[in-house]
Design a protein that fits this description.
- GO terms for molecular function: sigma factor antagonist activity.
- Pfam families: FecR, FecR_C.
- InterPro entries: FecR, FecR_C, Ferrdict_sens_TM.
- This is FecR family protein.
- The chain is α+β, with helices and mostly antiparallel strands.
- The protein has eight helices and 19 strands.
- The strands form three sheets. Strands 1, 2, 3, 4, 5, 6, 7, 8, 9, 10, 11, 12, 13 and 14 form a 14-stranded mixed sheet that branches.
- Strand 11 and strand 12 form a beta hairpin.
- The longest helix is centred in the N-terminal third of the chain and has 18 residues.
Length: about 325
């Protein structure tokens, strides 16, 4: 197996015969299969224009995984090392910023749009004293009016807000058909497109949820989570595991009594994958655990498999998200 073949596989330029040779080799060794997914993780990071990675750090991380196989080392591990260098070299010319920022100004209204791609977390400062973290696959539009002092955010995805409260300059986050009004606080809002529920978790301070007409729905206390069901407009209040909810900002997956289905949705938002359940009964299996986000989806699923009868296979799709089948 040559290093240029690995690069061709990951870039989607390999012939059918080359693919057959490559995957037949992987099937004979679990260690080689694991290294393949490490390589693919690195490839994804350098092949998307909006990723910004520390190349030395990524190489060092990959080398550590390869060096764990010292007792089994053969030419294949040297080949993977060379392939990693090739991948990073290919990526040097296409690396960009972590998020996209667009500015428009109309009649004293300033509009800025930010986006965190899959597999990344962005940190932005929209005004002095107000910081926002954007989770993977999140888009946020920030609109400010210097004349009136209004500050508005339109969110699709997940973000954690640390807002400096200014009485004459209200800060409102719009997600779906509700508004979250800040009164000097730190809070997390999860509102991914396609999700029926919008989750608002108050970490400290005060926030109030209001409907489209501006009528108050609920005031949150620190440590509470409000879950708004868009289809029924019902709102329920629960105690929140704040450290688990905000763990994404620290580069971790933290699952606390979460169903496999909801975990898979999180994995879809972070990795370039889609899930399909061929075993319907396992959707509601409950998990609790903590895993670093810097690992691969293959590794995460292996960890989940330890505690249940979960089985999975990954079908790679060059040019599109891989398909993960749970059975």
């Amino acid at each position: 197996m040559e290093s240029n073949l690995i690069a061709k596989i990951l870039s989607g330029t390999a012939t059918e015969d080359e693919k057959s040779e490559y995957y037949n080799t992987l099937q004979k060794s679990q260690a080689k299969e694991e290294l393949h997914y490490e390589m693919k993780n690195l490839w994804v990071k350098v092949s998307k224009k909006k990723y910004d990675i520390d190349k030395k750090k990524e190489l060092a991380s990959l080398w550590r995984h390869i060096d764990k196989k010292k007792s089994q080392r053969t030419n294949i591990y040297r080949v993977f090392r060379y392939a990693a260098i090739v991948i990073l070299a290919l990526g040097v010319g296409i690396l960009g910023t972590l998020y996209v920022r667009q500015n428009t100004t109309t009649a004293n209204i300033i509009s800025q749009t930010y986006k965190a791609e899959k597999g990344s977390v962005a940190k932005i400062e929209v005004d002095e004293g107000t910081t926002i973290w954007l989770n993977s696959a999140t888009e946020l539009r920030y609109i400010s009016n210097p004349e009136t002092g209004e500050r508005k955010v339109y969110l699709s995805g997940e973000a954690l807000f640390d807002v400096k409260h200014v009485a004459e300059s209200p800060f409102v986050v719009y997600a779906g058909n509700i508004g979250i009004y800040d009164f000097g606080t730190t809070f997390n809002v999860k509102a991914y497109k396609g999700n029926q529920e919008i989750e608002t978790t108050l970490i400290e301070g005060n926030v109030e949820l209001r409907d489209e007409a501006g009528r108050s729905l609920l005031a949150l206390n620190p440590g509470q989570i409000a879950i708004y069901e868009q289809s029924s407009t019902r709102l329920r209040l629960e105690e929140a595991n704040v450290s688990a909810i905000a763990a994404w900002r620290e580069g971790k997956f933290v699952f606390h009594n979460k169903s496999l289905e909801s975990i898979c949705k999180e994995l879809e938002n972070w990795y370039d994958v889609e899930f399909r359940f061929d075993n319907e009964e396992i959707r509601e299996e409950i998990y609790t655990g903590k895993i670093k986000r810097s690992t691969t989806v293959h590794y995460v699923l292996k960890m989940l498999k330890i505690t249940t009868n979960l089985n999975f296979k990954i079908i790679e799709k060059p040019g599109g998200p891989d398909l993960v089948i749970i059975y």
